[in-house]
Amino acid sequence: MKELIDILKRDRKLLPEEFAALINGMSEEDALYLKEQAFQVKEQFFGNKVFTRGLIEFTNYCKNDCYYCGIRKSNVNAVRYRLTLEDILSCCEEGYGLGFRTFVLQGGEDLRYSDEDIEQICRSIKNKYPDCAITLSIGEKSYESYKRYKEAGADRYLLRHETADEEHYRLLHPESLSLKERKQCLWNLKELGYQVGTGFMVGSPFQTAECIAKDLAFIKELEPAMVGIGPFLPHHDTPFKEYPKGSYELTLRMIAILRLMIPNGLLPATTALGTIHPMGREAGISWGANVVMPNLSPVRVRKKYELYDNKICTGDEAAECRSCLQRRMLTVGHEIVTARGDFIPYTFEAEGKENLCTM
Ligand code: 5AD
Ligand code: FES
């Protein structure tokens, strides 16, 4: 397996069957080797700097019904909320003071916000904080809508593909959603010049090593700037409530594999990773992640944005989260920086040893 890891590091890709073999056949010793290699690459490109994004979960209404998600429309127990433009701007104000230079606006697919509304949100944030990046994460929209948001100031877009296996996709989503459409959205976003983020859950029901191999092949093809992955965690009010959570160890290994695939990529140590293990986000950094995304949403709505059970940080003020994460990152020798943390395309052929963090 060490050989495969070396090939992955050198070529930044493997064949799907090699990915599957690596995932299935990795010993503890191989995993430690993988971790070392990934950490080394991360250090080469980013040093000990960790980028941070302020996450604003502005609506938990959703027209979709994904079987894994706690805010799916059929969950009548979910207490729904929407933030106003003023709410969002006050989150940004607090976040800016805490050193955030990227705001991530995440929400369910909520038809109440028209394209004009989203444009207005983007324009207002950009107007007040021209030095900040805006990331949208509001699901599948038309090419035209994505174009409008981009023109209104959105810089980045997060849309996890969830699984790149057609059959698996069908088992996680109702008929109204399709992998084809999902992928098309991602290609549209790329074409429009967004820094694009995709990703998937590790250990979602029915996932196999072959599914993950397809995820990695799709990620290679897409060449995203960001990849968010976290373990599947069951939510008590969903059809998947009885399914076991994903593997913590496999999630860490996937982060390391992704770091070798995308040396200059922005890989978050996700909230789901911090939920499955008390030191999950720290471990994520040690396995090659370089981004953390603390929550800036008002505390009164935090618990309501519950995609899975026991989500962390739902009772903490933004400032507490920020300083908590600062301390946590220090325990693994890392430092959070005040910077936009843009994706920097890199010509590997130029064989550079430069550090992409300019802070
Ligand atoms: N467990 C883990 N991650 C989840 N997501 C949604 N539901 C769950 C769950 N039960 C992830 C999806 C989505 C992102 C916002 O959160 O991958 O894209
Ligand atoms: Fe939110 Fe620690 S990061 S409380």
UniProtKB/TrEMBL annotation:
List positions binding (3R)-3-methyl-D-ornithine: 137
| Cofactor notes | Binds 1 [4Fe-4S] cluster. The cluster is coordinated with 3 cysteines and an exchangeable S-adenosyl-L-methionine.
Residue intervals of the Radical SAM core domain: 48-270
Q: Which keywords belong to this entry?
A: 4Fe-4S, Iron, Iron-sulfur, Metal-binding, S-adenosyl-L-methionine
| A Pfam family it matches | Radical_SAM
Read off the SUPFAM superfamilies from this record.
Radical SAM enzymes
| GO terms classed as biological process | sulfur compound biosynthetic process; water-soluble vitamin biosynthetic process
Amino acids binding S-adenosyl-L-methionine: 162, 182, 233
Among the GO molecular function terms of this UniProt record, one is: metal ion binding
Its required cofactor(s), as named, are: [4Fe-4S] cluster; [2Fe-2S] cluster
State if S-adenosyl-L-methionine is listed as a keyword: yes
Residues annotated as binding [4Fe-4S] cluster: 62, 66, 69
Its domain of life reads Bacteria
Q: Report the PANTHER family cross-referenced here.
A: 3-METHYLORNITHINE SYNTHASE, BIOTIN SYNTHASE
| Protein name (record) | Biotin synthase
Q: What is the lineage of its organism?
A: Bacteria, Bacillati, Bacillota, Clostridia, Lachnospirales
